[in-house]
């Protein structure tokens, strides 16, 4: 089911680049650039509803809403509401695909609500119940105590309840931080909701703002805790255990005058009694509670139970240290030559640690030849090859971090091609990090060498990853060359994407449905596309980068890349005069003329 909506898009007057901010367009080129950014934003929002999968549409509407939030919250909320509609559409039984689809939906919903919550947690809370998957609603539903039928064959209900409570609590906490003037009322209402791992944090947050309200709310929480079992259907309710111990620990520290969270002593005493009784009567609970802590609670509130607790929690007799372990530990502190002479008496694993440690000590002394000879003399076959590569890799990183670029380049030249590409690229970035002015030419030289090792048309996933690593560096140093590398690759990438969509879909892979990649499952990363690099290219040349993004055959990839470009390129969205523009009968965008 596709859900149409009406959204007004109020376009920007400012386009942000790395080195230049246009508060007012100083020339015609800047004006043209701004207009293109506005048009690109409109086009992109207009394309979202054409995507097949509701989870993709929900994700894209959320991204677009985040982009608009700083300047037009009303329009951003329209997009957030559209994202909520798409989540509801995703709950349609006709959309269900595969045995693990419920878990996927839960994950998508959590990502989207958290993303909306980063901007407007109060609005995200309004979507929480409306977008709740049936499997979570069923777990939350009250049960007739006389109904003994099994409803949860996977024993997952408690996890679902715990995760849902945590999501709600995190949004409540964010809403309180985003609206300080309403924080007390938000937190008080939140503390009436199901317990979560953030309930104690909410109490503490409330105490910081209104100690009296926190004391009142804590009494309510303590009363509920007294009625909440530690075990549910044979499973430990970690949330109840954790909250109980947090409140008891706080009560032990109440002598601190700076503690603003004051707890009712009588209610705390009752809670301590519940914890002590559970610890004594149920051996399963003892594995989830610290016996020492339970003793502390009993010492203050139920002294008569201390000896009984100690009886079921005997202190283990400290074991004597193994002489061989002590000898090994002592040898690790010795000089390299002593470590080598004494290594033979230890296990193979311990000898490996001794050899590596001795080699590192030689490197620290500047004796690289001796360090390398340790590996050459004490390893054999494939293990020797791998150990030498690891040694060279670590030595390269040491040289790189120390700014010894010529020596690092020499190490890189001896490595396999895949390592060489990565090392040369890292060299380029490190050179620029240390000296952005005079290091630019040298950095580009390293990148040119790395580029020459990758080839123009990657033939494997590994080759594609290496090429994209080089592209990511070029995007920072020379975006035009980054696009020079990317543009000839689009045909190949489209072929791979089309083939992958068919094969993965046939295999029932959850990352593809109806021939469309699920963006939240890492659609771009699946093909080594670095969205950050694309965004940096857009900052330098928006038109050319947009053309590259549009060269992909899959619309979900095009829209995702466009939004990445805009999120990294647009600094502000300003108010403009708008007139209606109908698009595809179902979506109404508004554009200024």
Brief characterization of the structure:
65% of the residues lie in helices and 3% in strands. It is mainly alpha-helical. Among the domains are: 194-316; 323-378, no CATH class; 384-453, no CATH class.
Which structural class is indicated by helix and strand composition? mainly alpha
Largest sheet composition? 3 strands, mixed
What is the count of DSSP helices, taking H or I runs of 4+ residues? 29
The tally of beta strands, per DSSP, is 7
| Rg, Cα atoms, Å | 31 Å
Which term fits the overall shape? globular
Uncertain segments: 1-25, 571-593
Q: How do the strands and helices of this protein lay out in sequence?
A:
Blueprint: E1 5-6, H1 28-48, H2 54-69, H3 73-90, H4 101-128, H5 134-140, H6 157-178, H7 183-190, H8 199-209, H9 211-226, E2 231-232, E3 235-236, H10 238-252, H11 265-281, H12 283-286, H13 291-301, H14 306-312, H15 323-331, H16 336-342, H17 348-364, H18 368-378, H19 381-401, H20 405-413, H21 417-434, H22 440-452, H23 461-477, H24 479-486, H25 490-507, E4 512-513, E5 516-517, H26 523-526, H27 531-540, H28 542-550, H29 555-569, E6 579-583, E7 587-591
Parallel strand pairs: 1-7
Antiparallel strand pairs: 2-3, 4-5, 6-7
Helix pairs in contact: 1-29, 2-3, 2-4, 2-29, 3-4, 4-6, 5-6, 6-7, 7-8, 8-9, 9-11, 10-11, 11-13, 16-17, 17-18, 18-19, 19-20, 20-21, 21-22, 21-23, 22-23, 23-24, 23-27, 24-27, 27-28, 27-29, 28-29
